[in-house]
Every structure is written in structure tokens, then in C-alpha cells.
């Protein structure tokens, strides 16, 4: 659980904000698109959805926009599933994903394995699959093979 919490602890400022601040730009928030997205009413559609434990495990639905603004809610959901023997990650609807989200999923996978928990995927979007492959994380995440069209 510590690795999963550490993963999210250092992400409070994005690269664009750091670069803008380094350049002396006081309007750094204008360069940070997730800053505005992560606050207020828009957050409701970004949260991960966790269903009641099913007989075969806890279901966590990853949000369509699985980027930095949605990750605190997703992290909370994932941490809660570490108490269950099995978790099912539903990722078929993921349309946007960033490296921070993939880091969170890798950290979660490691924490679950260390605790002897099973993680299973219920659908993986092409977006998530491509991002994981690009970063060399498809095997680490143990993504299922794509279903031919």
C-alpha cells in the first residue's frame, strides 16, 4: 500500500506548471489543463466507479478520462480493493489515459501481488492497450490479449 500511496504523493504539480514556474510565469495554471478539470462539478464524471463485491470479486470501473484529475478517486477505490481477495478492473471505456494513471495501475498491481490478491481485467480499451504498450507496461499490467475484430 505504501508504494501505491507514494506513487500519487509526488504528482501535485504537472510538468507544464513546473516549466512555466521556472520561466517566471505567474500564470502557470493556464498551461495546466488538468488543474481546472480536477475541481468543481466536472469531477463527477471523472471518478472511478466501484461496485459492491460480487461473488467473483470487487469490480472497479476505470473512468473514460483516466488522467491525473481522476486519479485520487481511482486510487481510493483501488486501495479499498486490496482488502478483497480478488479485483476486477473494467477498462473498456477508457478513452484518455496518461503516464500517471499507468504508474498508479503498475503500483496497484505490485501491491496486490505482494498481498496475494488477484487482479483480473474485464475489457481493455485500445487506448489503454496502446499507451501501456508504448511504455512497455502491457506485460507488467498483465493486460489480456486483444480480441480480434
Description:
The protein is an alpha/beta fold. It contains six helices and six strands; from the N terminus they run αααβββαββαβα. The chain has helices spanning 2-9, 15-22, 33-37, 71-81, 99-114, 126-134, and strands at 49-50, 58-61, 65-66, 86-91, 96-97, 118-124. The longest helix has 16 residues, at 99-114. Residues 11-47 and 49-54 have low confidence and may be disordered.
CATH-defined superfamily: STAS domain
SSE pattern? HHHEEEHEEHEH
User: Order of strands across the biggest sheet?
Assistant: 1-2-4-6
So, CATH architecture? 2-Layer Sandwich
Low-confidence stretches: 11-47, 49-54
Please, how many domains?
Answer: 1
Mass-distribution shape: globular
- How would you characterize the largest beta sheet? 4 strands, mixed
Helix fraction by DSSP (H/I, runs of at least 4):
25-40%
CATH class: Alpha Beta
Strand runs, count: 6
CATH topology: Transcription Regulator spoIIAA
Task: Write down the overall mean pLDDT.
Answer: 75
- The percent range for strand residues is 15-25%
**Class inferred from helices and paired strands:** alpha/beta
Number of helical stretches of at least 4 residues: 6
User: If you compute it from the alpha carbons, what radius of gyration comes out, rounded to the nearest whole angstrom?
Assistant: 16 Å
The span between the termini is: 38 Å
Amino acid at each position: 500500500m505504501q508504494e501505491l500511496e507514494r506513487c500519487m504523493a509526488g504528482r501535485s504539480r504537472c510538468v507544464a506548471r513546473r516549466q512555466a514556474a521556472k520561466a517566471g510565469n505567474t500564470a502557470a495554471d493556464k498551461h495546466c489543463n488538468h488543474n481546472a478539470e480536477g475541481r468543481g462539478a466536472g469531477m463527477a464524471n471523472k471518478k472511478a466507479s466501484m461496485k459492491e463485491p460480487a461473488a467473483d470479486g470487487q469490480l472497479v470501473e476505470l473512468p473514460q478520462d483516466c488522467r491525473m484529475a481522476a486519479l485520487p478517486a481511482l486510487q481510493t477505490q483501488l486501495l479499498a480493493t486490496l482488502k478483497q481477495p480478488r479485483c476486477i478492473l473494467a477498462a473498456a471505456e477508457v478513452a484518455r489515459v496518461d503516464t500517471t494513471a499507468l504508474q498508479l495501475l503498475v503500483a496497484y498491481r505490485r501491491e496486490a501481488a505482494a498481498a496475494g490478491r488477484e487482479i483480473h481485467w474485464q475489457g481493455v480499451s485500445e487506448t489503454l492497450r496502446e499507451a501501456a504498450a508504448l511504455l512497455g507496461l502491457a506485460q507488467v499490467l498483465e493486460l489480456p490479449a486483444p480480441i480480434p475484430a
